[in-house]
Design goal:
Radius of gyration: 19 Å
Order of helices and strands: HHEEEEHHHHH
Structural class: mainly alpha
Number of domains: 1
Shape: globular
Number of strands: 4
Strand content: 5-15%
Helix content: 55-70%
Number of helices: 7
Strand order of the largest sheet: 1-2
Largest sheet: 2 strands, antiparallel
Distance between the termini: 29 Å
Length: 174
């Protein structure tokens, strides 16, 4: 019984994602989709309406590509070399990397990076990252997988909440 409930919720979540992706695709039909490989390639600059889609760390430090983010992460981990232990600096670098990747993928301006990430499996994501020939910092694959897992969970949990409200509080004409 629990499996049927899980499958029903998962199906609803996928339906919601498909609806949202279809609605946003209709709004920006002239834009080409962004592939998963492009999203995981550090030097990729996503363009929308001919302009780079920037992303920010801490809400105000803007970047155009993940490769621009890497020197910032390195500078911040070195900045605290006297105050933090080696392990703490590594955790700081990994946290900044994950936050930067999440900011890159989840955009208020362009939904295509998130669409590319959510419509592929973790295995496909790992394969795409392993094919990247550009340099990337330690923890790059794990950070992408964490962002993907977080947002897939958020989409499914959001669909469950909407399903619960619809079942418990039916609205409509009877």
């Amino acid at each position: 019984m629990a499996i049927n409930s899980w499958l029903r919720n998962f199906g609803r979540a996928l339906g919601w994602v498909a609806y949202m992706l279809g609605a946003t695709a209709a709004a920006g039909a002239q834009e080409q989709p962004v592939s998963l490989r492009e999203i995981v390639t550090p030097s990729t600059i996503v363009l929308k309406d001919g302009r780079p889609v920037t992303f920010a760390l801490h809400g105000f430090i803007e970047f155009k590509s993940l490769s621009e983010l890497f020197p910032y992460i390195e500078s911040q981990s070195q900045r605290w070399s006297g105050a933090l232990s080696r392990e703490e600096r590594q955790r700081l670098a990994l946290d900044l990397l994950r936050r930067g990747i999440e900011s890159r993928v989840v955009s208020m301006i362009d939904e295509r990076p998130l669409e590319a990430l959510l419509t592929h499996t973790a295995h496909e994501l790992q394969d795409a990252i392993r094919k990247v020939t550009e340099p990337a910092p330690a923890g790059y694959e794990e950070a992408f997988l964490a962002v993907q897992a977080k947002w897939k969970h958020s989409v499914i949990a959001g669909a469950r909440r909407r399903t619960y409200r619809a079942e418990c509080f039916p609205i409509g004409i009877q």
